[in-house]
Each structure stands twice: as C-alpha cells, then as structure tokens.
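Open question from group meeting: does this chain pack into something compact, or does most of it stay loose? Before anyone orders reagents, we agreed to write out a predicted structure and look at it together. Recording both the input and the output here so the notebook holds the full record.
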Amino acid sequence: MSPRLALLAFIAAAAPSDVAAFPWYAKADDSAASSEPPSAEAKSETGGETPPQGAPHGAADFGGLALPGNLRLHGRFDINYERVGYSDNFFRGQDALQNYHRLLFLTRDVKDEPFSFNLEIIGQTWYEIIYRKSVLDGRVRIRARVGRILVPFGPDPLYHHAYGGRAGFDQQILPVIWSQHGGTVNVQTQVGPLLVADDVYAVQGYALSRADAVINLQSDFSSARDVRFGFGNRLSVSYAPFTVYYSAYYNALGFGRRLFMQAVDVSIWRFYGVPVLDRLTIDLGFLRADVSGGKERGYGGAGDDYYHLASYLQLRYYALDWLYIQARTGVKLLDNRRGFLGDDTRYDVRDTTSHNLGIVARYRNLTGAIYHFWNLEKRDEVDDDVLRFQVVYEF
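Structure tokens returned:
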C-alpha cells in the first residue's frame, strides 16, 4: 500500500462522524470528498478496501509536503460550531466549538523498496512498519504490518465504523480510532472478475475487570503488562460497484469469559451510466459481539451470557460532483440477555437509535458541511441532539 493511500485511509478513518476525507475516499463515512471513485490501480493497492471501478478525473491531488529522504508530510485540521443539549428544537440548545482534528502524518515509501512506514506525529495514534511482496508472478500480493496498527475489522477505512448510526468521534460502540499494538498480514488476489482480500491479525485485546462486568468495547483493553491477545480475520470480496466484508474477532477476557464478535458490511458504489443510481451510494452493516463462557469458574451460562448489537444504513446522493446529501440511521443495543436482534426487557438509556441528515460541499482542500443528528434513547430520553457546522482543511 502506498504511503499516500495508507494516509488517506487513516485520515478518513480518524474523522469525526461528519468530516471530509480525501477525494478517493469519498465513500468513507461522513467524508466531504469528491464523488470520484479510485482508479483500478488504487483499488488494487488496497485490496478492495476502496470504492471500486472508475478512474478519477478532476479530483484534487493532495500530495502533501515533500521532505528530504523520500519523506512526505500530510495534515488535517477542522473547526466545528455546534448546537448541543436539546431535543428536536436546536434553538433551545447550547453553543459549542469543537476541534476534532490536529493531525500530522509522516510517511516514507520508495517504489522499489519492500519496507515503508507511516506515523501520526502528534498523538502517535497510529504507527507501523510495512513489508510488501508479490508472488506467483504478481498475481498474489502480500502486505505485513507491525506496530500500533489499525485493526482491520469492518469496512474501510479499516477502523472507521458507523455501527449504531453514529460514526467517527460520535460513534459509541467500537473505539473511535481502533488501533492497537500487534501485527497483521494481508493477502490479496484477483479471481476472475472478483478482487479478494483477507486480513489475519493479532493485537492487544480486551480484558474484564471482574467476571460479572459488562464489557465496554471502546475502552476495556488489557494492559501492556498483562496482555490478552485478540485474534481476527477480515475477508472482503469486490465485484464492480459491490464490496462485501465479513469480520470475525476472538478474545479471551479472563475469568473463563470470552468475546466473539462478528460483522457483515455491504458497500454499493455509484452505477455510472445508470440514471439515478449513478449518483447514489449505499452502505449498510450489522455487528454482534457475544460474551460467554466462565461457567466452570462459577460465573457464566444462561442468564449471565450477553451480547451487544449494532447496525447502520447510509445513503448518499451526489447532486453535483462537489455536493452531496447524506441520510444515515442505525441502532445500538447493549447487554442483551435473550433474543437475536435485541432484548426489549433490558432497554435503558444506553440503547439508542440515531438518525442524521447532512449536506456536504467541497472545493479543493476546503470542505464545508451541515449536519443534524437525532439521537433517541430507548428509555429515559436525553437532550442530546446535535446541529453541526463544519469546516475542514487538509493537505
């Protein structure tokens, strides 16, 4: 993966729920980007992790700042004016100013060298050494990464999730930036018209503080001195404008308890040449995280096992190449003890449905966006709707 494409993936992934990515990552959640999909070469480099098909024409090229030693510097900065603390009527809300991005990325990648690296400088939220190799006359490409890697769970960008209907810095079930120390190997190949990619990985995983604790998937990670490893696999298959992902993750949590998490995601890019569909993108996904086991340790089994569940559906309509309208909805249900799609006997303020509408416009390096979020709790409604005006600059 080239440093530029890796950087674009990370910046799109690190975005708050409604911010711009770079042009070839217009598909990334709430990214105010160009409507152009990536070239076939770009798609090949990322193993189907970008919107398929079509070559960009007129998309801005953010080459970043060239430095000595084949290094390159990129950045992303934003400012957000928000109305918060209300339900339905934003005139009753409070003013807030937020800055979600102060990001600088340093990359080095030389075409004929097998090793490269990527580093987020300010927060060190992500840093990795990359080794790549092609085998079988280039028909199979292998890429290994080690360091604080982006965990390849769910659709791309690798850890930018919309489960629950919120995304980026707004989403509430998986880490905002899911990066952990570990390693991963990605293998990708072309099988007839299909582009197939598979990621196998091991990372610093989750741990429970006590046997009866309900795991928080955003924060309950094991410590560096008492690591519990998580193991996962993500398979993606792309055909024309369609990409399907299946993700699986396993983690022994302690006390005999174990986490098994699965997700299925589908992305449908624009059908060029087909009226209406040539301006529409569709993304949808479903996640279920089951915690079980431990009965032999005195805790677990029926009544004690539980699962978290989340879903999303997102539509985008590109009215113009530089302007699109977005609608997204999703459900988040925590600590379910029965059923498959939720347990209405246990609903509380943590269980939510979220809806959002947005209008996004982009000119070169600058993006402007307006979003409204309706955040609805299953029990004990909270005044937590949000109106957001956003300006983003990247280079």
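Observations to bring back to the group:
The radius of gyration is 21 Å.
The first strand starts at residue 65 and ends at 67.
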